[in-house]
Design brief:
It contains 14 helices and 18 strands. It is of the alpha/beta class and 406 residues long. A seven-stranded mixed sheet has the order 7-6-5-8-9-12-11. The protein is globular.
């Protein structure tokens, strides 16, 4: 039994993924014997409908000076955040001297658009190496974890915010009530808090269990977000479903009564009720589907290895791949190496299963017949890039929404 981080209700796990390393903890061989593990268990709270990890590693183990994720390496993500910045500027940052804050601003992929437009801004990014990249672009960034105390400091130095935004970050934060209290204080009376994260509805429907890893302590739905924010005098006034990261939801939040609630909110809440997001049996079904996906993937990789006489190559050393590899017990016997374009990951090894990470030019050198696509959420961008592999008949192994070869 564990206590819900949102409403303090006791709740139970519905699945354990077993011992799991730090998802983004790509490492050299000399660090193998010091690798950290924790049991990754997931539970559902029937009181507030929040799905969450029962325990999460300390934040300093996950976000630090060696954090190996830079949003701007993806052209698709660059375009996505350019569009988001444009919408902020046209709809919310229109008054005199507007001020925008971003929680978890990474390398400045979104804020660079506001900076170019001369809009006052502040990025809050705890990983020093990533924050330094943003600073080099001229983006005002501090290296801190956002909470109620930091919000007070920001008000003192910069004033209150017209917008507070975040992308793929709020679900990382276990001390969420301190964050929401800070947001409620930092927002102007009609200010908007807008965040996007992987959507629980998509995880259930696509069986995209690789969205579950150490950084993601919460798996949000409109229902659980509404239950969570009302404790801080906040209200969900709009929602927008996004295709990024394999299915995300963008939540628009303001002080209760300050903005009109759109019909889309009620539509999504009704859809979630039909999907069974508030019912414990939904998560028992999800567990069975996850186990089935695991068994099918291992079977397929073994069949390919037997047919071609060698392991496959994987594409994309993602955080999500750590869950798949360790939960399915897939090691170098089934995957020869993982190709990745991130220099910080190359020549290291995957967390837990210790599969080599190599540069993308190794694909052409090895001429694989099959590649396992871990970065499936960037599939279209990857298909456009890997035309040489596709043209010579290369095949892709995918596991979301189903295990198959394409």
């Amino acid at each position: 039994m564990a206590t819900c981080r949102i409403c303090d209700t006791l709740y139970e796990e519905f699945i354990s993924f077993g011992e799991m390393p730090i998802a983004n903890g790509f490492l050299p061989p000399e660090d193998f014997d010091q690798e950290y593990y924790f049991e990754m268990k997931v539970g559902f709270c029937s009181s507030c409908s929040m799905v969450q990890l029962l325990e999460q590693p300390q934040r300093e183990r996950m976000f630090h000076e060696d954090y190996a994720f830079f949003s701007s390496l993806s052209k698709g993500q660059t375009a996505h955040f350019k569009n988001f910045a444009d919408s902020l500027m046209s709809e919310y940052l229109t008054g005199d001297d507007p001020f925008a804050v971003e929680i978890g601003s990474n390398d400045g992929i979104m804020l660079q658009n506001l900076a170019s437009a001369g809009i006052r801004h502040l990025g809050v990014e705890p990983s020093e190496n990533v924050a330094n990249v943003a600073r080099e672009k001229g983006i005002n960034t501090i290296s801190s974890f956002f909470d109620e105390k930091l919000a007070a400091d920001i008000i003192e130095k910069h004033g209150r915010a017209d917008t507070i935004s975040s992308a793929n970050v709020i679900c990382h934060i276990p001390y969420i009530h301190s964050v929401l209290a800070g947001i409620a204080k930092l927002l102007k009376p009609r200010g908007a808090f807008i965040f996007e994260d992987p959507y629980l509805g998509d995880i259930i429907e696509k069986v995209s269990y690789d969205q579950i890893y150490d950084e993601h302590v919460f798996y949000f739905s409109a229902t659980s977000v509404s239950n969570m924010i009302k404790q801080h005098g906040l209200e969900l006034f709009d929602v927008e479903h996004l295709n990024v990261h394999g299915g995300s939801m963008r939540y628009f939040i303001a002080k209760k009564g300050s903005r009109k609630v759109t019909e889309d909110v009620q539509t999504v809440l009704a859809n979630e009720e039909r999907l069974g997001i508030t019912l414990p049996e939904t998560y028992e079904t999800l567990r069975r589907n996850i186990e089935g996906s695991r068994d099918q993937l291992v079977k397929l990789l073994n069949e390919i290895k037997a047919a071609q006489g060698s392991p496959v190559i994987a594409y994309g050393a993602t955080s999500k791949s750590t869950t798949v590899l360790n939960y399915c017990n897939i090691g170098p016997d089934l995957i020869a190496f993982i190709s990745d374009t991130t220099p910080l990951k190359q020549n290291k090894f995957s967390p837990g299963m210790h599969i080599p990470i190599k540069a993308s030019d190794e694909i052409e050198k090895n001429q694989p017949s099959h590649m396992l696509l871990f970065a499936w959420n960037h599939m279209q961008e990857i298909m456009n890039k890997e035309t040489a592999y596709n043209n010579r008949g290369g095949k892709w192994v995918v596991y979301v929404p189903e295990v198959k070869v394409i």
